[in-house]
């Protein structure tokens, strides 16, 4: 999480805390500018996430044990968890989206958890990443919705159970909320991750400046770290279940 | 951080000359294409790993396990039924054997009874025969004895008559004795 704090911290003098430095994107090799193809710390930590995914879902399951090994049962746990979520929330029609939802969940979950390793880089703390994830969901829902239901997809904005006079107003609200979805969807994830990591870094800065009393912020960091583990898992869950809820609008029967 | 001088030439607009972040790195537009590119690469790779290898494999394993478990349960159920059937067969055999044994016992009893009856009848007949024979002998002896008594009585009577000085009429004595004997 710490990225070059020491070099410039001393120059600033006094209590030098740079909680945002951990989010800097840097080239992995050399000092050049960050082009779109540059191999950066983003690349590294996403690559590590892919390696963990391969280890958990390919290597650990290679024996196809009827009686699973420990890691295989973990993979099966994730499989069952997301599979049930997709089936329960999206309905039977949405089961086709299981690999897609599984990819989203595993990417976010692994990125969140890997980001909690000290000195690591949290790819999901960047709005650029979460916004792409959220926009992908938004576009998938919109395209699938129109493809499957045609113009009938718009009926989800027309709340037929409300009094006729209220319906245009509700339609406007529904429309706005529909387009706000990707924003809230992405900011919720990125903001949670960023805030937690920044708080840990702030406490770490206190610990560096407080001498013997720094035991207090260190204990606080341990507590916040546990909380962040929870946040990492919960936010991955929240993102995924919201994806399922949105997908239900596209494939399920109208619920208004 | 706002007090630190901003030197844009070093690493773009998002990092100051010390390598520290300016504002929120999340809002640095210069880095976004890089993040988006690698994110898409990662997602595509993950999707294909999951879609082509991992998920079908785990799905197959779970289905196979479910099948195995239900097969085993069915087999257990079948074995249980077999055990019940075997127990029933055993009980039936036991009951049949009991009935058979009772029959044999009854037959044996009847046989024995028959033999016994036969033997009893035979013994009775023998006893009857012997009794009859004995009776006959007794009556013979009795008749003999009667005759002897009569003879003795007649002789005695004659002697007495003779002793008394009478002339014993053999016929009269005899009839008198016979009459007395009867009386």
What distance separates the N and C termini of chain A?
46 Å
Q: Which band does the percent of strand residues of chain A land in?
A: under 5%
Q: What is the overall pLDDT average of chain A? A: 87
Main sheet record of chain B: none
Helical content class of chain B: over 70%
Specify the helix fraction band of chain A. Answer: 55-70%
From the spread of the alpha carbons, the general shape of chain A counts as globular
Q: What is the helix tally of chain A?
A: 7
Radius of gyration of chain A: 22 Å
Largest sheet of chain A: none
Query: N- to C-terminal separation of chain B?
Result: 173 Å
The H-and-E topology of chain A, N to C, reads as HHHHHHH
Lay out the secondary structure.
The complex is a heterodimer of chains A (256) and B (183).
Chain A: H1 5-12, H2 41-59, H3 70-90, H4 98-115, H5 127-149, H6 167-209, H7 215-251
Chain B: H1 32-163, H2 170-182
Give an overview in words.
The complex is a heterodimer of chains A (256) and B (183). Chain A has one domain. In chain A, 66% of the residues lie in helices and 0% in strands. Chain A is built from seven helices and no strands. In chain A, helix 5 runs antiparallel to helix 6 (167-209). Chain B has one domain (25-182). Chain B is 79% helix and 0% strand. The longest helix of chain B has 132 residues, at 32-163. Mean pLDDT of chain B is 86; it is low at 1-11. Classes of the chains: A mainly alpha (256), B mainly alpha (183). At the A-B interface, helix 1, helix 2, helix 3, helix 4 and helix 5 of A face helix 1 of B.
Give a short synopsis of this structure.
The complex is a heterodimer of chains A (256) and B (183). With 256 residues, chain A is mainly alpha-helical. Chain A has helices at 5-12, 41-59, 70-90, 98-115, 127-149, 167-209, 215-251.
Observed structural traits:
heterodimer, A: 256 residues, mainly alpha, 7 helices, B: 183 residues, 79% helix, disordered N terminus
């Amino acid at each position: 999480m710490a990225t070059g704090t020491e070099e410039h911290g001393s120059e600033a003098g006094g209590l030098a805390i740079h909680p945002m430095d951990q989010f800097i994107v840097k080239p992995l090799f050399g000092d050049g500018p960050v082009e779109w193809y540059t191999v950066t710390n983003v690349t590294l930590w996403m690559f590590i996430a892919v390696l963990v995914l391969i280890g958990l879902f390919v290597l650990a399951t290679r024996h196809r044990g009827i009686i699973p090994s420990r890691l295989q049962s973990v993979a099966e746990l994730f499989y069952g968890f997301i599979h049930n979520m997709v089936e329960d929330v999206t309905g039977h029609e949405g089961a086709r989206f299981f690999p897609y939802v599984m990819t989203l969940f595993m990417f976010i979950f692994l990125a969140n958890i890997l980001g909690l390793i000290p000195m690591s880089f949290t790819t999901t703390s960047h709005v650029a990443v979460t916004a792409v994830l959220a926009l992908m969901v938004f576009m998938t829902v919109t395209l699938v919705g129109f493809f499957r239901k045609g113009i009938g997809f718009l009926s989800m904005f027309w709340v037929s159970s409300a009094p006729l006079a209220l319906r245009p107003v509700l339609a406007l609200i529904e429309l706005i909320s529909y387009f706000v979805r990707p924003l809230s969807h992405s900011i919720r994830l990125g903001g949670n991750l960023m805030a937690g990591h920044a708080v840990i870094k702030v406490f770490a800065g206190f610990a560096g400046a407080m001498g013997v009393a720094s035991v207090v912020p260190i204990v606080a960091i341990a507590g916040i770290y546990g909380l962040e583990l929870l946040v990492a898992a919960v936010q991955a869950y929240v993102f995924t279940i919201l994806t399922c809820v949105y997908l239900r609008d596209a494939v399920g029967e109208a619920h208004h | 951080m706002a007090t630190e001088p901003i030197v844009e030439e070093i690493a773009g607009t998002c990092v100051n000359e010390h390598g520290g972040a300016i504002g929120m790195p999340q809002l640095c537009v210069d880095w976004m294409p890089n993040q988006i590119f690698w994110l898409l690469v990662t997602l595509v790779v993950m999707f294909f790993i999951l879609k082509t290898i991992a998920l079908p494999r785990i799905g197959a394993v779970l289905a196979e396990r479910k099948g195995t478990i239900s097969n085993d349960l069915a087999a257990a159920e079948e074995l249980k039924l077999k055990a019940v059937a075997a127990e029933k067969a055993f009980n039936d055999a036991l009951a049949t054997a009991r009935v058979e044994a009772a029959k044999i016992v009854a037959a044996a009893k009847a046989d024995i009874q028959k033999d016994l009856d036969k033997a009893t009848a035979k013994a009775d007949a023998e006893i009857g025969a012997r009794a009859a024979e004995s009776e006959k002998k007794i009556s013979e002896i009795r008749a003999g004895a009667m005759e002897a008594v009569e003879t003795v009585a007649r002789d005695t009577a004659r002697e007495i008559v003779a002793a008394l000085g009478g002339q014993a009429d053999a016929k009269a004595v005899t009839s008198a004795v016979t009459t007395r004997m009867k009386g």
